[in-house]
């Protein structure tokens, strides 16, 4: 069996754990997801790895290094999915990490530093509305009181769901590795967007992970009869909301070179009816970018637009921030090393920001971190038809293997003193 078949087989085994009819449903802390995790642990064991599961359900599978006491090099991603998601999101990074170990074993390569394969628990926010819980726990930023009573669609709280899997929410903090020395973390992930495919690149070297600022904007006008209210005497809340949405598009387009994006994804017309001028509208706005300055320019423009719309359309607008997170920049040294690897292997690559959050953004707190993207066909993700060609996955695994081998060699400076 060649490497290609071997990897396909491993990948297909993981995809069998699915409770949905459409696409893959393997939601965090459910039977399918736990069974999948157990199966993955057995596969790691078969490769001679020492396996453990931490207090949050993260799998840590370790291959010892040649030299005692050196900090480990970590690689991985997540096995949980959204409801009716695809086969690739997360699974690629976990299976790729195990494939790298298989290659090292096959070639008899002994690394100086230990290597760990990580499968993070509960990366997707689908079940409880919060994402990357496993990597947050590992990075020591799991806030149990914030999440304890979050409920899934069946009314089960996170605390209960953890307990059903034999985890205790009050012990999750013990999963923290803050006091540990970790050499580096690498995550291979599908792009979940159309850029690599459109530009015919095989690898995305991620420079930073965008973080969202989100607002709820309530626009109040006056509901009135659509037949009897003259056009110049209306206080139409929907038209105010529309103007805000269009201005957001305009300013985000002007920030395109910085990669900032802005979206109005929710628009609610209170008691909307065909014969009523809309009196009350709520929109929800999501603005993301890796450049704090660029994001701020969009925010400033949004503020000015709101004031203008309020004045010119005679509306009352209340805007409330829902969330504001800091963008994360990834290790410049790792980015440079990945670039060298791609150049040496003649792999077409692109430096790019990530518009979506990943476990890597929490791992930045623990160690230098790198994130590698492979193309997503048609940019589809969180969708049953999510797809990446096997050949493209193998290129991603090659880059992951190279970077892990590079970082698991002891620095020559330190070596002289051993
Ligand atoms: Zn993912």
From TrEMBL:
Presence of the UniProt keyword Cell membrane in the record: no
Keywords of the record: Hydrolase, Metal-binding, Zinc
UniProt cross-references to SUPFAM superfamilies, sorted A to Z: Bacterial exopeptidase dimerisation domain (SSF55031), Zn-dependent exopeptidases (SSF53187)
Residue sites binding Zn(2+) 1 per the record: 78, 89, 189
CDD domains, per database record: M20_bAS
Residues that bind allantoate: 214, 275, 288
Name recorded for this polypeptide: Zn-dependent hydrolase
Annotated source species: Ureibacillus yapensis
Binding-site residues for Zn(2+) 2, renumbered to this chain: 89, 124, 382
Family statement drawn from the similarity comment of this UniProt entry: Belongs to the peptidase M20 family.
Record-linked NCBIfam families: hydantase, PRK09290.1-5
Single annotated GO MF: hydrolase activity, acting on carbon-nitrogen (but not peptide) bonds, in linear amidines
Cofactor(s) in the UniProt record: Zn(2+)
Domain Peptidase M20 dimerisation as annotated: residue spans: 214-306
InterPro entries according to UniProt: Amidase_Cbmase, ArgE/DapE_CS, Bact_exopeptidase_dim_dom, Peptidase_M20, Peptidase_M20_dimer
Cofactor detail note: Binds 2 Zn(2+) ions per subunit.
């Amino acid at each position: 069996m060649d490497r290609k078949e071997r990897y396909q087989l491993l990948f297909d085994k993981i995809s069998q754990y699915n409770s949905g009819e459409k696409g893959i449903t393997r939601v965090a802390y459910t039977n399918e997801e736990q069974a999948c995790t157990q199966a993955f642990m057995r596969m790691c064991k078969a490769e001679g790895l020492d396996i453990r599961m931490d207090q949050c359900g993260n799998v840590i599978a370790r291959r010892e290094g040649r030299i005692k006491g050196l900090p480990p090099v970590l690689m991985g991603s997540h096995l949980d999915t959204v409801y009716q998601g695809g086969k690739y999101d997360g699974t690629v990074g976990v299976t790729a990490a195990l494939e790298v170990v298989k290659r090292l074993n096959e070639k008899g390569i002994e690394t100086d530093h230990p290597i760990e394969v990580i499968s993070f628990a509960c990366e997707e926010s689908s079940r409880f509305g919060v994402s990357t819980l496993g990597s947050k726990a590992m990075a020591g930023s799991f806030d149990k009181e914030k999440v304890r009573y979050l409920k899934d669609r069946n009314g089960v709280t996170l605390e209960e769901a953890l307990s059903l899997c034999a985890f205790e929410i009050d012990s999750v903090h013990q999963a923290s590795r803050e006091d540990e020395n970790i050499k580096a973390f690498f995550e291979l992930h599908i792009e979940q967007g159309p850029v690599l495919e459109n530009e015919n690149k095989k690898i995305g070297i991620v420079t930073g992970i965008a973080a969202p600022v989100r607002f709820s904007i309530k626009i109040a006008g006056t509901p009135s009869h659509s037949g009897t209210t003259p056009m110049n005497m209306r206080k139409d809340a929907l038209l105010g909301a529309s103007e805000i949405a269009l201005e957001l598009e305009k300013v985000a387009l002007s920030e395109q070179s910085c990669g900032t994006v802005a979206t109005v994804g929710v628009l609610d017309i209170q008691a909307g009816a065909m014969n009523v001028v809309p009196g009350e509208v709520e929109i929800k706005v999501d603005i993301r970018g890796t450049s704090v300055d660029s994001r701020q320019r969009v925010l400033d423009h949004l503020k000015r637009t709101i004031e203008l719309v309020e004045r010119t359309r005679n509306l009352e607008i209340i805007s409330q921030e829902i969330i504001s997170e800091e963008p994360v920049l990834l290790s410049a040294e790792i980015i440079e090393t990945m670039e060298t690897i791609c150049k040496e292997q003649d792999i077409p690559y692109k430096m790019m920001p990530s518009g979506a959050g990943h476990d890597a953004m929490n791992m930045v707190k623990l160690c230098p971190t790198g994130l590698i993207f492979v193309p997503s066909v048609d940019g589809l993700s969180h969708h049953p038809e999510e797809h990446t060609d096997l050949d493209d996955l193998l290129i991603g695994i090659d880059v992951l293997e190279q970077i892990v081998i590079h970082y698991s060699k002891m620095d020559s400076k330190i070596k002289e003193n051993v």
